[in-house]
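Troubleshooting: if your tokenizer reports a length mismatch, compare your output against this known-good record of 120 residues.
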Amino acid sequence: QVQLVESGGGLVQTGGSLRLSCAASGRTFTSGAVGWFRQAPGKEHEFVAAISWSNGSTYYTTSVKGRFTISRDNAKNTVYLQMNTLKPEDTAVYYCGASLTGWAGRYDYWGQGTQVTVSS
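Known-good structure output:
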């Protein structure tokens, strides 16, 4: 049974930074991808970023390019999301998901989410 556990959320002022972590257990990922998604109140679930386990290729939604960086530590089976220059519109619950097929495919496993709040 795969488990994903997010951590690192919190309250930060506009322009600040946070680093989210997604630790995976129950399976060592060698293929597929891990992605970060977010959902703000009253809004749809939104793709933020993803990274391929096999070659480290990264993908970002336009609104976070240049501000967010996704990375992975294969030895720790952990994916990180470094978020810089945060804006109030980044406020949301952030979820990590693992896809066995690739970043654009179905996400098979999900974490419980971590709240990110950016104050203006």
